[in-house]
Amino acid sequence: MNPKKIIPASRTENITYAVRDIVVLANQVAKTGKQMLYLNVGDPNIFDFQPPEHLLNATFDAMKKNYNGYAPSSGIQEARDAVEREAERKGIKNVHDIFITTGASEAIDVCLTALVNDGENVLTPSPGYPLYTAIASKLSMIENPYYLSEENGWLPDIDDIKSKINKKTKAIILINPNNPTGSLYTLENLRQIIDVALEHDLVIFADEIYDKLLFDGKKHVSIASLNKDVSCVTFGGLSKNYMVPGFRIGWGIVSGIKEVVSDYIEAINKILRARLSANHPEQYAIKISLEGDHSNLFESNKKLESRRNLTMEMLNSIEGISCVKPEGAFYAFPRLHGIESDAHFVAELIKETGVVVVPGNGFGQKPGTNHFRVVILPNEQILEKAYTAITKFYQKYLNKYSERIEAS
Description:
By secondary structure, the protein is α/β, with parallel strands linked by helices. The chain has helices spanning about 20-30, 55-65, 75-90, 105-115, 130-140, 160-165, 185-200, 260-275, 285-290, 295-315, 340-355, 380-405; strands spanning about 35-40, 95-100, 120-125, 145-150, 155, 170-175, 205, 230-235, 250-255, 320, 330, 335, 355, 360, 370-375. Helix 7 links the parallel strand 6 and strand 7.
């Protein structure tokens, strides 16, 4: 008997996730005994960040009360009500549905699945979070990236967005604050995007998972709050703001004109019902997180702002590297000048120094440019050690590969 090899679905061929894919190489290097410095994964819990105690207590209490079975498909009412009040605080009007999901990632997956047919497309930011392109591959969507302008603080390029819209474009995705650049979008930019969405009947997917992690006294504005008629799904969650990415608790808020979004809401809920429910006891942490003591956010932002400042000072002091100042989240996206390939640079950096960052091509970038993403969650001592290693390595890399770069 000669069993045939199982052939995986073709839809998986183009699924990549640079943040985790780079770990394969990092693990190989770690086995050699080299000390590793991980600046690749946006998980605050492996560094010196803790979730607020009242969030944990609410979850433990729910478990003790045996709220360990299935939850309603859209989430428990207490949690949905709390998210609705959060939407009100954000200024979002015309809210017609709220649903709780297994992380904001599931909400994004569900909403794309409920909207996009084979061969259709959504406008995705470049640079942007690689989850969106992975889902696009799964759904047989046509990739349709629009560029963020590095020269303009990594804001969406409105002219580029307009030029990419076609008859099969269904939505536009915003990540604000942005991952991987840390940019925070302006009122003018948001209003321009609304105008484009209304003109072309596009749904706006507003990924606002980092909306409370902000620096320099900046304020976040939810795009859905600027126009009650634009069709919008606003995504949020506990993972980043409240330092519990492993809880996998997120949500979606659908707003706009009821008659326009009603069928879409039903399609979303069909999928939610089919997958039964999100994590149950963790949903009891939503209300206390959104409405309880927020001193943890003050402390988190204070630490992150300090580490952002160190990142800017050290990376921008390296001749050949430039970095736009992040205004939120916990990432920076420095540019490499005079480098042929960021993927090659990062691979050699990991092998030579043990500093693990993610190549910019895993997030998308303008052709002809090269970047890498750093996570600014580690403490100042770790960051300083990592950036010092990058400083020394950069010149060494240029000297070693200068002929190859010049030839290209």
